[in-house]
Amino acid sequence: MLSFSILPRRAGPTNRCSTLGSPAEPALPLSLGAIISLSGPPCTSASPARPACRNEQFRPCWLAIRASKMEQMANPNKSAILVHNERTGGNSIHQAIGSIYHGRIILLNSPKEFCEKKGRIVAALSDEPYYIAGHVPLLDFRGLMEGSQRENMIVFSCIRDPIERIVSLYKFNLRVPGALGPVHAATTGRGFAYFYSYMAEKHSSMVMNSQCRYLSGGGFVAARMAIETAFDAVADLSRINDLVSYVAKLSGGEITAPAPKLNSNADSASDPDVLQQFVGPALRRKMENDNTEDLVLREHLLRDHDGLFRSNYSADKVEDTQEEPATQDDAG
Question: Which CATH architecture has domain 73-310?
Answer without folding.
Answer: 3-Layer(aba) Sandwich (3.40)
